[in-house]
């Protein structure tokens, strides 16, 4: 996790009276709710009610787990709750749409192409790429939303939320190698989408 | 007049295509990491792709930063409504009675 926060309980939490446990978890919930809501909103593609449902469910399930001592004191509470929320989201997504954790990455993409084998490029082939600063956050969000669900979730958890590959794999219940390949494909596709946006803006 | 610069497509070599992204995240180890680093040092296209992927990753990370949402405190950070907190407190109370 790239963003350690002071959102953790300081001592074991499975031996406390409920009032104390609730006070501690309440603090965690208040500290993390804004970040959870933003992540949930992105998962729910901007649907605020759905996002609030996801966070509320995660905090209820999180408290149940907290009472059972399944939160490790000193670990990152946000990452832990994000994993709970992601599991919940994926389960609900599985019920409503197709989600296949083991599907080959190539079948998940929309468009995109595999570069053919080639010799090393000449220096004049190297494109000038230090130009992402011209891309707006809205375009980035739009490109992210255009990805298929499994690819989008990988980018969200690793790039946006800062989980490492192992944490993302645990949250998504897929192997680390699948996280790696999905991220690679997703980033290539995102970049291609941003190139399209930049080109269409220049044509205006 | 010089054409304004713009973002260009990235075209890494086929054999590093799936590895560059993991290199950006520091998730490659051992000889694979050494090989990709060596290749990137000798291949302008893959070096450009690596630069682009790093920038993309940084921009995406920016979307998750608290500052991107509540810039200059002009926008209040999102919170659950009072009704939802009440419902959640009730669920927590129930959990205290039922969770072993």
Summarize the SSE layout with pairings:
The complex is a heterodimer of chains A (204) and B (100).
Chain A: H1 18-43, H2 48-67, H3 77-96, H4 137-145, H5 149-160, H6 165-172, H7 176-203
Helix pairs in contact in A: 1-2, 1-3, 2-3, 3-6, 4-7, 5-7, 6-7
Chain B: H1 20-24, H2 30-42, H3 44-64, H4 66-69, H5 82-98
Helix pairs in contact in B: 2-3
Put the structure in a nutshell:
The complex is a heterodimer of chains A (204) and B (100). Chain A is 60% helix and 0% strand. Chain A is built from 7 helices and no strands.
User: Looking at the structure, what is the overall shape of chain A?
Assistant: elongated
What are the low-pLDDT stretches of chain B, counting only 5+ consecutive residues below 50? none
In round numbers, the mean pLDDT of chain A is 77
Order of helices and strands of chain B: HHHHH
Euclidean distance between termini CA atoms of chain A = 41 Å
Structural class of chain A: mainly alpha
How large is the share of residues in beta strands of chain A? under 5%
State the helical fraction of chain B: 55-70%
Q: Bin the helical content of chain A.
A: 55-70%
Shape of chain B: elongated
Largest sheet of chain B: none
Strand content of chain B: under 5%
Uncertain runs of chain A: 3-12, 99-130
Distance between the termini of chain B: 74 Å
Total strands of chain A: the figure is 0
Keywords:
A: 204 residues, mainly alpha, elongated, B: 100 residues, 5 helices, 60% helix
Describe the model.
The complex is a heterodimer of chains A (204) and B (100). Chain A contains seven helices and no strands. Chain A is an all-alpha fold and 204 residues long. The longest helix of chain A has 28 residues. The radius of gyration of chain A is 20 Å and the shape is elongated. Chain B has 100 residues and is mostly helical. The mean pLDDT of chain B is 83. The chains are: A mainly alpha (204), B mainly alpha (100).
């Amino acid at each position: 996790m790239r963003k350690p926060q002071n959102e953790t309980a300081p001592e074991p939490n499975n031996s406390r009276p409920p009032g104390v446990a609730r006070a501690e978890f309440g603090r965690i919930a208040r500290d993390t709710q804004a970040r959870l809501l933003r992540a949930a909103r992105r998962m729910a593609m901007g649907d605020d009610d759905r996002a609030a449902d996801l966070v509320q469910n995660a905090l209820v399930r999180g408290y149940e787990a907290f009472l059972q001592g399944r939160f490790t004191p000193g670990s990152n509470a946000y990452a832990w709750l994000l994993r709970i929320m992601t599991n919940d989201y994926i389960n609900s997504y599985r019920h409503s749409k197709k989600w296949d954790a083991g599907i080959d990455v190539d079948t998940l993409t929309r468009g995109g192409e595999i570069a053919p084998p080639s010799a090393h490029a000449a220096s004049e082939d190297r494109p000038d790429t230090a130009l992402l600063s011209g891309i707006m956050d809205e375009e980035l969000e739009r490109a992210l939303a255009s990805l298929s669900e499994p690819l989008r979730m990988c980018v969200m958890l690793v790039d946006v939320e800062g989980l490492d590959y192992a944490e993302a794999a645990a949250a998504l219940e897929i192997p680390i190698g699948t996280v790696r390949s999905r991220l690679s494909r997703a980033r290539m596709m995102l970049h291609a989408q941003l190139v399209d946006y930049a080109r269409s803006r220049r044509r205006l | 007049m010089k054409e304004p610069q713009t973002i260009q497509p990235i075209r890494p070599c086929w054999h590093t295509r799936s590895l560059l992204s993991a290199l950006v995240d520091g998730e490659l180890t051992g000889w694979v990491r050494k090989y990709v680093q060596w290749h990137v040092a000798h291949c302008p296209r893959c070096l450009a792709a690596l630069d682009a992927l790093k920038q993309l990753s940084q921009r995406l990370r920016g979307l998750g930063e608290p500052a991107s949402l509540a810039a200059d405190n002009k926008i209040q950070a999102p919170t659950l409504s009072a009704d939802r907190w009440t419902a959640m407190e009730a669920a927590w109370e129930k959990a205290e009675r039922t969770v072993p």
